[in-house]
Design a protein that fits this description.
heterodimer, A: alpha/beta, Rossmann fold, CBS domain Like, 2 domains, 13 strands, amine transmembrane transporter activity (chain B)
């Protein structure tokens, strides 16, 4: 099913200035919004229209998990439904593997949904009258795959999520966590490149949720899938996402790696979210270190070469262990064998607090972007 | 003008309309008559084809296979009672009348009900109509039916169909309105066509409510079919009418109890099918 000439990092799903305005007078309302700069509440009052998603552009690259984090009403659920055209955008383009969804006939659209985009729902949406196995095989059944074949593939998918021996049971015999595993198995049974996850773990209790988060990330990576993952929980986004977008009032207000967002929140809204997040495993040496010359300037006679060394990728947890273990008050950060900076105690403490050093841009580039 | 002259009389307008229909559309009604009579004849012949001593075990066996021991016992007892009362043929005639009218009622009500759940305007329009159809005393339906189709089984079936449509239609619409939105979304997101969504998601999840509608349709049709004994529909209704007109307690009561037996039989069998469908692992 995969096309052969894909290069790693290519774009699987992209949105270009996509808008969704709900209501009968949506086009009119959108024009008023753009031309007269009406506020959303005015739009609601004057046109009876609700702006769900406004001017969102995003890309999902092959192999990554892209998290969209936002509170209820932020438009995240609308956005994810625009990606497989369960909701048709008011304006803008959504492309899946280069195909503009708006240009597709009903049949071609169904084909794209069946083969290229899987979806997992918050409510799980298992069919109550079918066994776990028949539920998992649903996607293939829709595609007209024979019973023996689809049940075989569904069984493999159930094995991957650890539910092989539950195949003959009915959904209501399973716990919430297990049901969502079936939902995931159903999504991967049709072997799509992209999986859309609509708040899949929100209704689960915290322990099961963490477990499923880890399993999901592992499974997605090991199968080489890409995913758009919707959540209202920033911690979840950080655990799972390679990149995170934060949404508010239908707009993506910040997009970047977890480290990016935690260290450099774009505005007070993001900062408030980030405030409660533990930095220990998130912030890495290269983003809190002081430049060598600045460090030398503050303490004449000191030599960076004599310090204990640490990789630029080391997180705060490791840095603390090392610093406490070595007994010194600074560590040299090395990248490809060369010393690129120094982490002092105060750098470390500020890092734990979540305030990035105001340092020259040389080493401020986050890893994600550096590799592009 | 005198106030007492003001009288609203829909019948005064309807009667000429029926007359006109009779005069101008007679061929159509003749065809309808023929079709219904043929169907009824077929079902009746099928029910009476086997003698009672083969028919009762056969029904019991089918009930056992499809539902369980208790349903089989009940079926045997109820049919046995009909035979013991000497009303075997009348009972089978009544069953045939009910089967044919339920079949036609469902054939009309089911698609309309599905449409009504899809098109809200249709649902709103049908609501009051259904109310009227359910509250008008059933005898009243018999009048135009007899005017058009004359006495006999056909007007009885027509009136029964009209009476059986509202419960089936209402519960069909309800059943389809109740299908969870996330399941429909799952269907679309999986790339299923509207037809596949209807067959594989909507119908199975709506089934319990649909069967409830069918159950209601069957029981109300039975009630109507018995009433239709008044216009010469035959079957158990005819026995009851005879008991009533001759003021004879014995035959009237016997026929009445046989009707109860048939009702119990139909109710339990249709409800049994409803309960059974849950949890039957297919291999």
């Amino acid at each position: 099913m995969k096309t052969t000439n894909d290069t790693p990092g290519d774009v699987l799903v992209s949105c270009q200035s996509v808008w969704k305005v709900f209501g009968k007078r949506a086009p009119e309302a959108m024009r008023a919004y753009l031309e007269r700069g009406l506020s959303k509440s005015q739009i609601l009052q004057d046109f009876g229209c609700v702006v769900g998603v406004s001017d969102v552009s995003m890309e999902l690259r092959r192999g990554e998990i892209f998290c969209i984090m936002g509170l209820s009403g932020s438009g995240k659920s609308t956005l994810i439904r625009l990606l497989n055209r369960l909701i048709t955008p008011t304006s803008g383009h959504v492309r899946v593997k280069g195909l503009d969804l708006a240009s597709l006939e009903a049949k071609a659209l169904r084909e794209v949904r069946a083969k290229h985009i899987g979806m997992v729902f918050q409510s799980v949406a298992l069919l109550p009258h079918r066994t776990v196995l028949e539920n998992a095989a649903f996607g293939l059944e829709v595609q007209g795959v024979g019973k023996a074949e689809r049940h075989k593939v569904a069984e493999q998918a159930l094995t991957k999520v650890g539910l092989a021996e539950w195949a003959g049971r009915y959904p209501d015999e399973l716990s919430g966590g297990m049901q969502q595993r079936v939902g995931l198995a159903r999504a991967i049974t049709s072997d799509p490149e992209v999986i859309l996850m609509d708040e899949p773990f929100s209704a689960l209790d915290p322990l099961i949720r963490r477990q499923l988060q880890d399993e999901f990330r592992q499974l997605t990576k090991s199968l080489g899938k890409s995913a758009v993952f919707i959540t209202h929980d920033l911690e979840e986004a950080i655990r799972i996402g390679d990149r995170i977008a934060i949404m508010k009032d239908g707009v993506i207000i910040q997009e970047g790696t977890a480290e990016d967002i935690v260290l450099n929140p774009k505005d007070a809204y993001v900062a408030e979210f980030v405030a409660g997040i533990s930095r220990l495993h998130l912030v890495r040496a290269h983003s809190i270190m002081t430049a060598v010359h600045a460090w030398r300037a503050s303490r004449p006679g000191a030599e960076a070469e004599s310090l204990a060394r640490v990789e630029a990728q080391a997180d705060l947890d490791e840095l603390i262990n090392l610093m406490v273990g070595s007994g010194s008050d600074a560590l040299a950060v090395v990248q490809k064998g060369a010393i690129v900076g120094v982490v002092t105690q105060s750098d470390l403490l500020r890092g734990v607090q979540g305030q990035a050093q105001e340092v020259p841009a040389v080493h401020a580039a986050p890893i994600g972007e550096a590799s592009l | 003008m005198n106030l007492t002259d003001l009288k609203l009389s829909p019948g005064a307008w309807l009667a000429p309309a029926v007359d006109w229909l009779n005069a101008n559309w007679h061929p159509l009604f003749a065809v309808i008559s023929k079709v219904i009579e043929a169907m009824l004849g077929g079902v009746e012949a099928a029910l009476l084809w086997l003698p009672f001593y083969l028919m009762i075990p056969l029904v019991a066996l089918l009930a056992f296979l499809a539902i369980g021991v208790r349903a089989a016992l009940l079926a045997a007892c109820m049919l046995g009672f009909c035979w013991l009362s000497g009303l075997w043929v009348s009972s089978m005639q009544t069953l045939a009348l009910v089967s044919v009218s339920v079949l036609i009622s469902v054939a009309i009500a089911f698609p309309l009900g599905v449409l009504a759940s899809r098109i809200k305007r249709l649902e709103r329009a049908l609501g009051p109509l259904m109310n009227v159809m359910q509250t008008v005393p059933p005898w009243v339906y018999l009048i135009p039916a007899v005017m058009v189709f004359s006495l006999g089984k056909v007007p009885a079936i027509i009136a029964t169909i009209v009476y059986g449509i509202p419960p089936m239609l209402r519960l069909t619409t309800l059943a389809f309105n109740q299908v969870r939105k996330d399941l429909l979304e799952l269907g679309s997101a999986s790339g299923a066509s509207p037809g596949t969504i209807l067959l594989k998601i909507e119908l199975p999840t709506a089934m319990p409510t649909l069967l409830l509608g069918l159950n209601q349709c069957i029981l109300l049709s039975l009630a109507m079919v018995v009433l239709a004994g008044l216009v010469g529909a035959g079957g158990l209704g005819a026995e009851v009418t005879r008991g009533l007109t001759r003021m004879e307690m014995g035959p009237g009561l016997r026929a009445g109890l046989a009707i109860v037996a048939v009702a119990l039989l139909l109710d339990r069998l249709s409800r049994g099918a409803l309960q059974r469908r849950h949890r039957q692992p297919e291999v």
